[in-house]
Amino acid sequence: MQDPTSLVPVHARDFRGYRAGSVMWSTLGLWITDGISSHVFVGGRNSERHQMRQGMVQRLVDAGRVRPITAKEGRAALGDIPRHVRARNRRPKELDAQVRAWLASPSVRSPHRPLGQSCD
Question: What domain of life does the native source organism fall in (predicted)?
């Protein structure tokens, strides 16, 4: 979170019920878990853990540290990460630790274009 170049992927335009500017939670989850889980931030139920994780990311969004991307760009960016066999019954503490490690890393990977590069 301290690295000012870390940007949160948000929808560049309205897409399948998601408003432009809303966080791409599934994409972000896949990125920070190296393809293991798209449900780090959202899931079948809205638990306290999901809310806590969303709050961590929302602070970046509130600070304007976002990068609008299209769904197509998000899918293309996800092609670069290894796809693990998704472990069943992932423990919430493991997922929390992955989110914290990602946010603290100076080399955060998020699907975005370098600053100044056009989205066209």
Answer: Bacteria
